[in-house]
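Tokens as discussed.
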């Protein structure tokens, strides 16, 4: 299988860097083909601007969506964007690996998403009409591929528990797992999390490697998070609200998971 690892940490000798090396080695030993996009090492340009459409006329109004649509449809994207899209199409699985910074991904990784997820590639795909709102949330260019996050946090596991002060980790990662990964069609596996990183010593590092190694061995077997598919009948269209008879009276991020009420 082909695995794309998108890695965002500025220091190769970090814990995240050591785990990246482990991931590559483990997948390699299992016979998978691995490509790594090391965003800091690549000097990844993180901001969307008019240079992302090679046909953009100087001085013309820049429309991030429409310029993206034109550039993607006409082969007028910069090479760095096109190369990352090619890697995504090549991959059977995507792993995103990063430290949690301000309850989200580092800006350089968000900038990878902003630029690589072009109009016509990751969004604006499929029929858009009164009866259908495109191929997304379970359908799209990434359908049939798997995705998983590997995230380190300074905070403790309890800080991210259902009643923890930081908010439940499932909620914090929802915009990434549901909004960025499930949206273009990935099957999203539960994340692998390392909490309280300041307390990682050699013994704990070896435990983490063992656990993570098992997750990698199970990459093709693990049951994905059962996010509800947009076009499978659970949502009223075009409002795209969950049908009232499903988890009646309830709201919140968790209602978008099938059988969330047990
Ligand atoms: P490192 O700092 O590199 O290492 C952590 C520990 O692992 C160290 O003790 C080190 O000795 C040990 N270690 C490293 N490599 C090895 C190895 N090869 N073998 C054995 N041990 C090793 N945390 C939150 O919880 N929520 C936030 O919102 C948040 N926001 C942040 C925002 C910013 C801008 C920054 C800088 C930090 C933030 N943090 C936050 C903390 C951050 O998540 C952690 O610092 C980060 O996840 C640690 O990962 P690292 O790879 O940088 O670890």
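Sequence:
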């Amino acid at each position: 299988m082909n695995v794309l690892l998108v890695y965002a940490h500025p220091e190769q000798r970090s814990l995240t860097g050591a785990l990246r090396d482990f991931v590559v080695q483990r997948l390699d030993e299992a016979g998978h083909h691995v490509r790594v996009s090391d965003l800091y090492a690549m000097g990844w340009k993180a901001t969307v601007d008019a240079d992302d459409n090679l046909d953009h006329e100087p001085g013309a109004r820049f429309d991030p969506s429409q310029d993206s649509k034109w550039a993607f449809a006409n082969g007028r994207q910069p090479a760095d964007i096109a190369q990352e899209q090619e890697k995504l199409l090549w991959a059977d699985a995507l792993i995103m690996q990063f430290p949690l910074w301000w309850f989200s991904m580092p800006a350089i990784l968000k900038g990878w998403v902003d630029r690589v997820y072009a109009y016509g590639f990751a969004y604006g795909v499929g029929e858009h009409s009164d009866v259908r709102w495109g191929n997304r949330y379970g359908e799209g260019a990434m359908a049939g591929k798997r995705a998983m996050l590997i995230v380190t946090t300074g905070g403790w596991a309890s800080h991210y528990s259902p009643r923890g002060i930081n908010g439940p980790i499932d909620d914090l990662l929802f915009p990434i797992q549901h909004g960025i990964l499930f949206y273009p069609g990935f099957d999203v596996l539960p994340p692998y999390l390392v909490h309280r990183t300041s307390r990682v010593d050699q013994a704990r590092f070896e435990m983490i490697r063992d656990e993570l190694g098992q997750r990698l061995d199970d990459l093709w077997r693990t049951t994905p998070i059962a996010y509800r598919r947009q076009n499978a009948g659970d949502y009223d269209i075009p409002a795209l609200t969950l049908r009232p008879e499903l988890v009646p009276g309830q709201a919140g991020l968790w209602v978008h998971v099938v059988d969330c009420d047990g």
